[in-house]
Amino acid sequence: MMDAMDLPAPARPTRRPEHAGSRLAQLAGLLADETRARFCLALLDGRAWTAGELARLAGVAPATASGHLDKLVGGGLLTEERQGRHRYVRLADSASAQLVEELAAHAGPPPAPRSLRGSSANTAMARARTCYDHLAGRLGVVITDALLERGLLQQDTGFAVTEDGLRWFDALGVDLTARPRGRRPPARACLDWTERRPHLAGVAGAALCRHALDAGWCERIGSRRALRVTDTGRRALLDLLGITDADLTGESVEAPA
Amino acid sequence: MMDAMDLPAPARPTRRPEHAGSRLAQLAGLLADETRARFCLALLDGRAWTAGELARLAGVAPATASGHLDKLVGGGLLTEERQGRHRYVRLADSASAQLVEELAAHAGPPPAPRSLRGSSANTAMARARTCYDHLAGRLGVVITDALLERGLLQQDTGFAVTEDGLRWFDALGVDLTARPRGRRPPARACLDWTERRPHLAGVAGAALCRHALDAGWCERIGSRRALRVTDTGRRALLDLLGITDADLTGESVEAPA
DNA sequence: AGAGCGTTTCGGTGTTCACCGAAACATTCG
DNA sequence: CGAATGTTTCGGTGAACACCGAAACGCTCT
What we know:
Chain A is of the alpha+beta class. Chain A has 2 domains: 73 residues, Winged helix-like DNA-binding domain superfamily/Winged helix DNA-binding domain (Arc Repressor Mutant, subunit A, Orthogonal Bundle), CATH 1.10.10; 130 residues, no CATH class.
């Protein structure tokens, strides 16, 4: 950081000399409001929402939502896309999504209650959902566990796709070696706040999620992030990863450690 | 500690029906103030600072700093340790440090000026410093590059210590296999905002930094995060990783693609 | 004990900012 | 065109909150 010049001896305050952590404060300020935080959490589904939808979700007037979106877009966290009379917004990129995830995970209820038997909507979300662009919920965790168990993914020194894993993905028609070599990590762990275990994110996670939706393994329920695993999906998961229905519903699976 | 006081369930959302993203907003709010942001950035050196030091650093009155520290400690981002008339604070844990890092990296100046005209203090920091508990600056990047080159670390599918790497660390007297199996990732990439390249963090990064200081490879300059590589350090880096003085000063090392 | 220093509490000030309702725009549909 | 719908602009209000100085508190050292 180039903030602190040589402050040891003379205190040179009196006025803010340069802009050091001001950028950090500015960024954090975007998420420091509950309404904006709700917006971003909702947008973690990776899709575009309209301003009105977000306003209703957060329980504020459309005018208020409009102002918040100005801030979020202006801050680079969101991008917008006007279509007719609608203003669609989405998270700007995967880095921004990761930031929100990370914050949310860290902010997750510290005395997290193990058993959350919520409404039926909540259980559906807990079972399977998307998290920005990858699979989360019980489904995401179970798949990640299966990949680890079969040596397709290795966690003990990070989160890396193995050689076998590359072949496995290739068999699905997903070529991980041909990735655009961008900044985005190929395999990344995402710690979700309902399941307390990490699950696969990053390029590999996104590719897997896309494939799952394309191949009809699962489909979206309603207009939210929740997913439903189809029959073909169940069959595929069993064939490819040995995942049973009991695994998916969390029947006999307690705490494996 | 006595932290089990007020965080579990305040249950007074004032007006919002449920508490959804309010925890996120609360956490982000801690870093949404420039003074508090400066505090946290300074604390990224992993050491404990007194309230007065932080006040002078940020250019605010001691009374103001005191209040900010109350908030940061209360929010769980910092822990405090009273010693006589001093109030020492430090980042609560590596997770909190990672959070600040991540935010800072994302908030890094988007129109980042390539040329960092630095005072001598700045160049020293750019050359070698600590970042919470691991090595950063040119030194950190060079070591990480060397580890990658020699196959001790692998990045192309994450950031993982290889089998050879485990043996290499073991030869240093650092046993990475005996790690406490905690939540902390063994190997993690930390993207610093002066060097724009990732360098080794996580348990392995911390162990390496500790060893470097213990073995006298480098020593702290002044009271800040800056480090100086000693002669024995130079010799060790050359012997173990083939790192030359030119590498360290960044002489002929431009952009390796 | 008393001087010195770091820290905290207290009262007060000024600014920022989230929020709303109403009216103005803009787009789509009948 | 005129009605319905989604969004934005425009005041205005109220509540946080960052900040300071002064005084009080507590520890250390002479």
